[in-house]
């Protein structure tokens, strides 16, 4: 089964489990038109330091110290699509990356303590509170009022978990040791994500 098939299954379940009016708002949001103005291959990312759940800072310089880094931008641990994606990457991507001296790190705008449920992951899960890094890449965007009301109806208050009503487009960014973007795949439709095989091909091609 591909990652996309599994994500579609989660969405099909949500369609039947969520209140119809709430699902309709979220479904319309993921299908919104237009492409975000994001950084392109060849752009250089400024070094950054972000905390994990334990407060330990991890820098981009550390991540690319011995090879390329795969940066996975996700919405938050409250997002079931993100949970499945990160755990799929741990199983299918992380073991292969080690063969190429590459590292993997996940980044979200969620407060550091919000990543505690990801303690079982064997790669850094970092908090970009305020979306400084994501905004620099063009991945950050404000949540619309209808979506905000739908999320609040489901008990998700981004003001508490993220510090603001701002989200990021899920994305995978591969950077080389010079912190230059060599691959970027952005998903405004949050039910879709980068397949593991695509990530590995991007790293292998460096």
Query: Cα distance, first to last residue?
Result: 27 Å
String of helices and strands: HHEEHEHHEEHEHHEEEH
Look at the structure and give the CATH class: Alpha Beta
Large-scale geometry: globular
The biggest beta sheet is recorded as: 5 strands, mixed
- Contiguous uncertain segments of 5+ residues: none
User: Which CATH architecture?
Assistant: 3-Layer(aba) Sandwich
CATH homologous superfamily - what is it? Glutaredoxin
E-strand count: 9
User: Going across the major beta sheet, what is the strand order?
Assistant: 5-4-3-8-9
Keywords: Antioxidant, Disulfide bond, Oxidoreductase, Peroxidase, Redox-active center
EC number: 1.11.1.24
InterPro entries: AhpC/TSA (IPR000866), Peroxiredoxin_BCP/PrxQ (IPR050924), Thioredoxin-like_sf (IPR036249), Thioredoxin_domain (IPR013766)
Protein name: thioredoxin-dependent peroxiredoxin
């Amino acid at each position: 089964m591909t990652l996309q098939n599994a994500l579609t299954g989660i969405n099909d379940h949500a369609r039947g489990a969520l209140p119809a009016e709430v699902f309709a708002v979220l479904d319309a949001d993921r299908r919104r038109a237009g492409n975000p103005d994001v950084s392109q291959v060849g752009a250089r990312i400024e070094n950054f330091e972000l905390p994990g759940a334990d407060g330990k800072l991890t820098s981009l310089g550390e991540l690319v110290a011995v090879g390329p880094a795969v940066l996975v931008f996700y919405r938050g641990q409250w997002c079931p699509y993100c949970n499945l994606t990160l755990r799929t990457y741990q199983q299918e991507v992380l073991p292969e990356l080690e063969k190429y001296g590459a590292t993997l790190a996940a980044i979200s705008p969620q407060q550091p303590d919000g990543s505690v449920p990801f303690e079982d992951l064997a790669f850094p899960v970092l908090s970009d509170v305020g979306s400084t890094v994501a905004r620099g890449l063009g991945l950050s965007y404000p949540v619309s009022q209808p979506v905000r009301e739908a999320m609040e109806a489901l008990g998700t208050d981004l003001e508490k978990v993220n510090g603001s009503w701002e989200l990021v487009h899920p994305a995978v960014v591969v950077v080389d040791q010079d912190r230059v973007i060599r691959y970027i795949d952005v998903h405004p439709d949050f039910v879709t994500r980068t397949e593991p095989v695509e990530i590995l091909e991007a790293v292998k091609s460096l």
